[in-house]
Amino acid sequence: MALFTGKGDGGTTTAFGCNQQRISKSSELPEALGALDELNAYLGFVKIHSAENARIAPAIRAAQETLFIIQAEVAGADKKVGEDAVKNVEKLIHEIEKEIPPLKGFFIAGGTELSALLDVARTLARRAERRVIAVKEAGLRDLPVATMSYLNRLSSLLFALARLANHLSGVAEETPRY
Fold first, then answer.
1. How far is CA 36 from the centre of its chain?
2. Which one of 17, 78, 97, 122 is most buried, counting C-beta atoms within 10 A?
3. What domain count does the chain have?
């Protein structure tokens, strides 16, 4: 199989489940798929930087697996994110919340390199979520509640992991001065 076909040189593409019609690469569906792919790729970068952390790296790997299911689902494949994926993320967030200081406001991103990477991943997750919502609102895909809930929880998980990375390193969170 060739790595390129040249068929997209004019700015169009096809997606599974679209009757193989050519669609603009800038339309909602490719935008959502691209945002999910960007997030998943970036999580691979975060995973490398968290490899020595036995708590963060597995959470990132699990998120990557689930994102592949969501990408397939958004593309039109018969794949679904189960409610168990949402419950697992919620459980992990609750476990982290028991360990880190209570949230009292906004924090300036950073602290440790890993925390900063997780903060960037959180913003990419929010963008991917917005793009998937646009696909749903445009009526291009009827995405189940579990998928939408997972995407919403993922950014919360990444925020919790960023705070955990700082906490485990003994780095205090900085609040903005406004």
1. 6
2. 122
3. 1
Here the CATH number for the domain that contains residue 116 is 1.20.1200.10
- Is residue 6 domain-resident? no
d(CA 172, CA 167): 7
Please list the residues that pair with 24 across neighbouring strands: 12
In a domain, 43, yes or no: yes
Mean pLDDT along residues 109-138: 96
- Which run of H or E residues covers position 23? strand 23-24
Report pLDDT digits (tens) over 49-83: 998 888 999 999 999 999 999 999 999 999 999 99
Residue 21 in this model has a pLDDT that exceeds 80: no
What CA–CA distances, in Å, run from 56 to 7, 50, 65, 157, 162? 40, 6, 15, 10, 9
pLDDT reported for residue 43: 98
Work out the burial of residue 139: count CB atoms within 10 Å of its CB; fewer than 13 is exposed, 13-18 middle, 19 or more buried.
exposed
Q: What is the pTM of this model?
A: 0.90
CB atoms within 10 A of CB 44: 12
Helix (H) or strand (E) holding 13: strand 12-13
